[in-house]
Write a structure and sequence with these properties.
Blueprint: E1 7-11, E2 53-62, H1 118-123, H2 132-141, E3 147-153, E4 163-173, E5 206-220, E6 223-225, E7 236-243, E8 246-262, E9 266-277, H3 278-292, H4 300-311, E10 329-341, H5 358-361
Antiparallel strand pairs: 1-7, 2-3, 2-10, 3-4, 4-5, 5-6, 6-8, 7-8, 8-9, 9-10
Length: 364
């Protein structure tokens, strides 16, 4: 079995409906400052005239250490995400949640226009992976190891389309080369894997589960939004990152998924944003930590990581931010692009071979 070499986005799933409340606060004790990076509101345009379905496969991901063009930039995270809490937070902000012991005020600082993304700023640098965005994109484009398929109904060929009533489904694309080794026993490269063409006639097989419905979506001047922020159809999405062959489950509260439609075949400037529950992130990471790096097998190193994760908490996990409440959430923003492919009709069947357990191999 070919192991995914780095970090792979595996799936998305919507949780149950709950109320979402936007909190108040500000950069000092008496004022409220609203950031500029807010999710676009629903348009005044009518229902979409489009009736066909168009499928797009994720082509690239930007996790926060590179810009959208792929250039390494330690401040790239500042441009990924949205202003989730309605505040522009800096080191002097006091009307915000109470950080974990030992945390620096810098961990609560926003990106541009109030963008909240502590995951890209603090968590991503903790992972023992060099160039995660490049590695994950090599896995998608070069090896066809996975993708996310966005089957959208209601898009038209108008680059400035403004309509309500769009819908669709999110699917997970399977590994195009599940049993193909990438090197021989001596490490020498062998036959290259099947590569996806990312063209409208290329069909990527999809996993039978999950299949996530998209409802109540709209598009404003070509910018697609997954739902009205005042009445989202779901309270969370579950995002699984595949690290060293192990699925790391991330539940993202107050989700926002947007992209710019560039007819006929491209989605650009895509964003997945929301808030992770801090303890949920730690629990998920703890399950796979030893398989990410053998240095985590002994436990001491990971205990330090857990403390740093708690210190990265920058807001409340329901997406609000207010004084007098412990910070128990970590904001996240991930960028993506996608290209049009054929509407999928073939199911992918996983061979079920598990990744090796590094800690077990090390006798721990």
């Amino acid at each position: 079995m070919k192991l995914v070499p780095a970090l792979c986005l595996l799936g998305l799933s919507f949780g149950s409906v709950t109320a979402i409340v936007v909190g108040c606060g500000g950069d000092d004790e008496t004022s409220t400052t609203t950031g500029g990076g807010r999710q676009p509101p629903a348009p005044s345009g009518g229902a979409t005239p489009g009736t066909d379905e168009r499928t797009f496969a994720v082509y690239s991901l930007q996790l926060g250490e590179t810009d959208r063009a792929g250039a390494v930039n330690r401040d790239a995270w500042k441009k990924f995400g949205y202003d989730l809490d309605g505040l522009t937070t800096n080191r002097d902000s006091r009307d915000v949640c109470t950080q974990a012991p030992g945390a620096t005020k810098a961990n609560q600082e926003d990106g541009e226009q109030g963008i909240d993304n502590a995951f890209g700023k603090v968590i991503l640098p903790l992972l023992p992976i060099t160039g995660p965005s490049k590695q994950i994109n090599d896995s998608i484009q070069g090896e066809g190891a996975f993708t996310i398929l966005m089957r959208i109904k209601g898009l038209t060929d108008d680059a400035n389309q403004t309509n309500t009533g769009l819908s669709g489904t999110l699917l997970v694309g399977g590994d195009l080369n599940p049993d193909a080794p990438t090197s021989d026993a001596g490490g020498a490269p062998i036959a290259p894997p099947t590569r996806p063409s990312f063209t409208p006639d290329f069909e990527w097989p999809y996993r039978p589960s999950p299949q996530i419905p998209i409802t109540g979506s709209y598009i404003t001047s070509g910018l697609f939004v997954n739902g009205d922020p005042k009445s989202l159809g779901a309270s969370s999405i579950e995002l699984s990152l595949f690290l060293a062959g192990q699925a790391l489950s991330l539940r993202i509260n107050k989700p926002t998924i947007t992209f710019k439609h560039q007819p006929p075949n491209d989605l650009v400037e895509g964003t997945i944003a929301g808030v992770l529950g801090t303890e949920e992130l730690i629990s998920s990471l703890e399950k796979v930590a030893g398989n990410i790096s053998e240095t985590f097998c002994g436990g001491t190193a990971f205990e330090s990581i857990k403390s740093t994760i708690r210190q990265a908490s920058d807001m409340i996990k329901d997406g609000t931010n207010r004084a007098g409440t412990p910070c128990d959430g970590i904001s996240v923003g991930i960028g993506f692009t996608a290209k049009r492919v054929a509407n999928p009709s073939k199911e992918y069947v996983d061979n079920g071979v598990p990744a090796p357990n590094l800690c077990a191999d090390a006798g721990q």
